[in-house]
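task queued by scheduler; priority normal; single chain, no ligands, no partner chains; default sampling; output format set to structure tokens
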Amino acid sequence: QIVSIAAMAAIILSFQCKSNKKLAFVYGTGASLFAISYFMLGQPSAALYNIISAIFSIMCLKNSLKTKLNFGIIAYFESN
């Protein structure tokens, strides 16, 4: 539960970020912590969803990864 509380704090903190890079980093950190928490609870599908969300946040940090194909692939996995 400590990991979940830290993840929730990171997600809430991400709403206070003013720069896009800081927002993506803090939100990605929160999603990663939630993935760890769900994995420890034995919920691999929820962990995978949060890992995909963290990857999406990392992609937003790099300009070279901001392509329509990459975002389409992530959107496909997020919707399933």
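post-processing summary
- The CA atoms of residues 3 and 47 lie 13 Å apart.
- The helical segments are 2-14, 20-40, 44-61, 68-79.
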